[in-house]
Amino acid sequence: MADLIRNPSPPHQAKTDSTELKQLLQTQADDVIMDTLFSKSWLITTMNRVVQYVQKGLIQYPIASAKPIIVDLTDSSPETGVVSSPKRAKLNTENDTAVELLDCKDNGETKDSTNPIQKPSIDNSTDLTDKKGGGDTTSTAATLSDTTNSNRLVLELDAELEKEFCNLWDATVNQHVAVFFSENNLIPILIHTVCNSRYPRLNEMCMGVLANIACNTNIAEKEFSSPHIAWFSCNMLTCDDPQTLMETLRLIETCVTDESTQEVWCNVFEDQKVIDTVQFIFDSSTNTELLFSLSRLVDLLLDLWSPLLYKFSTVEMTYALFEAHSQIMHPSLETAVNIIMIIHQLSTADEGVQVLLKLHTTMVDSCSNHIMILHEELGPQLAFSDASYRAAVALLQITVDSMKIKLGTLLMEDGKDFLAVLGDIYQKNVKLYCKEEMPAKSKSPSVTKSPLINQTTENCEQLELLEKTHLLEQNI
């Protein structure tokens, strides 16, 4: 019988090849961060490249009269020097060699920086310093003026490195990647990079990564409850790059809203030098996005931390808020709303009321313009339901009640327009909020009470607002 034709047997595979394959697969599996597709070695390599790139820039373009900064984020109080937890990673970049990341075993398009602003620097009372008994300094202070000196040479970031770091920035949205940063002491590396970088785009991305990591509530208390990180972030408010400022504000807002870190960050924000910086931005910047983010943060801070009301209740700060409001009212109604709400919060403190009365002419002008813009943009009924309308009416009522003057004497040429707007808002909302048909209003200037007083509405607050609107109308 003829031999049967069969397919040849597969080649014999050595055991060593099988072992090597298993080891390779195991190595690849170990390199993945938890349940993600992100590689540990890629992340570490990218961070190494960034640090080396910054170091190269420092060597090529040394900073005059300043050494590269050593970052030491020991959890100690700047006032007491009491250490509450072990030191985290420390980087020393004083030599010319590339910086290595030790103990690491295991967004968006670039936007134009419109209206960059120059801000005063804060002295070394707000530095990142590790002090132990007797006031001995064990690390170089990362002062605000060093961190964000506007006179430093600004350099363009390498396009390839920017793309790679952008991918890392996006990756930190993943909670497992954020935990990896925390477990491997990479947060001080980011701060070190910002302190020594001459690249605004890189600073923006580093602050963005920090803001992403801070969103992870599981590690926020561990990594962002140190006053040193809070100081560093508030110090960054003096930088002159709007996009870096935007990410810095996002980081601050994230930490302020987290109960585990809120107290530390709010306490730092009470410092007069930080408040002066905020005042400077309100007074000087016309950047819509920046003013929106800052006004939202300040409104939140005043709501969460009452001691700040007294810190913000100054003539200079209040005037800066009015200035920002007048600049931003037409380009961004949202931002104007935030600012009016901030000013209204100031009126809840006696000191704030006294300051507002000193600036009563400016206040009447801003509030009347705000109401007219709301009427124009939202319509009379929508404007009436807007919280900032209630705030503006309340501020105007303070002027009427305290100054005992007619608003018309302060409005001058705009008085007729404002009177027409108030009348329209009043008439349209009377029918909306009152159950019965309202009788015609008296045209006598001596009338100070609205016929609404004897009517009922679905909402007592709406009745009160209608009454105030009517009274304001009678005082023009």
Automatic annotation (TrEMBL):
Residues 113-124 have a biased composition (Polar residues). Keywords: Nucleus. It comes from the Eukaryota. It is found in: Nucleus. One of its GO terms (cellular component) is nucleus. InterPro entries: ARM-like, ARM-type_fold, Synovial_Prolif_Regulator. SUPFAM superfamilies: ARM repeat. Residues 104-143 are annotated as: Disordered. The keyword Ribonucleoprotein does not apply. Belongs to the SAAL1 family. This is Protein SAAL1-like. It comes from Oopsacas minuta.
